[in-house]
Amino acid sequence: MSGREHQEDVFESSIRAALDSLPADLHAAVSNVDVVVEDEPPRGQRLLGLYRGIPLTRRSSSYAGVLPDKITIFRGPIERLAGSDTDRLRDEIRHVVLHEIAHHFGISDQRLIDIGRY
Known about the structure:
Blueprint: H1 3-20, H2 24-29, E1 33-38, E2 49-52, E3 69-74, H3 75-82, H4 86-104, H5 109-114
Parallel strand pairs: 1-3
Antiparallel strand pairs: 2-3
């Protein structure tokens, strides 16, 4: 297995582990959301992850027939942040996934800062 394949494996398994670590009631509440990995964020943006969609707190009874929300995890910036430390890579991926899932639940960056989870 090449170094690149190993990193991809770590990314996929770390994303699954982060999602699986959610308490059962929260895991069950995650709805209509896809998690994808892209190499880099859009040009000029310094992001590790990005949530795009309609948070659960803003969905109404008319929410139907829409494309899934999208959580994008950006491989390049996270790998650069972690360096060659695989444990740190896993930790950073977990943090980013859970941060973006928080947005899916309608929790803002400011609220995450306020509770010490940014």
